[in-house]
Amino acid sequence: MIDAMRIAFTGPECSGKTTLSKWLAGYLGVPYIAEYAREYLSPNQPYFQADLHQIAQAQFTRNHEFQQCVCDTEMTVCRIWEAVVFNSTSALLDHLVNSENYGQVFLCSPDIPWISDPLRENPHDRAALFVRYKEDLEKRKIDYWVVEGSISERKEMILSKLSERFPNFTP
User: Fold this and answer.
1) How confident is the model over 123-167, as pLDDT tens digits?
2) Secondary structure of the chain in the HEC alphabet?
3) Closest of 142, 144, 147, 141 to residue 159, by C-alpha
4) Which of 10, 16, 53, 98 is least buried, going by the fewest C-beta atoms within 10 A?
5) For 112-134, how does the pLDDT look when each residue is reduced to its tens digit (9 = 90+)?
């Protein structure tokens, strides 16, 4: 077990965040924090910037409720979402993204097949969005690891990276 570890997954839509975060939370025996946007939004319903702000605030609160947990998403997702959809970044999202606290962040590569979903909006620009995620994390000097390849390769990579970073962790 990793003491007091809050882990977050980030990256473009359909890049494996949910699959990997559910698996890792179960593997570690810690709470899984789901993506609140899926609970908040209805398929095919319009949403506004104020909705995104409510989603971000609720996600932030849920992500920081436990000392040990695995989060399906974090504020980088909300900030890039806001920039892409509303062509702006609010002071609220800047504040939330700079207030986050994770022991480890995994950036999921969009090198797995796209699976259509009524809440997903960007099937064709995932690679460009991935670059934006990398740039955002690097600009903020966030320590992150890219996970790529098949789901089984990603799981092995995650366990390996956690073992490297935390000597008391044994997979």
Assistant:
1) 788 999 999 999 999 999 999 999 999 999 999 999 999 998 877
2) CCCCCEEEEECCCCCCHHHHHHHHHHHHCCCEECCHHHHHCCCCCCCCHHHHHHHHHHHHHHHCCCCCEEECCCHHHHHHHHHHHHCCCCHHHHHHHHHCCCCEEEEECCCCCCCCCCCCCCCCCHHHHHHHHHHHHHHCCCCEEEECCCHHHHHHHHHHHHHHHCCCCCC
3) 147
4) 98
5) 887 777 677 777 889 999 999 99
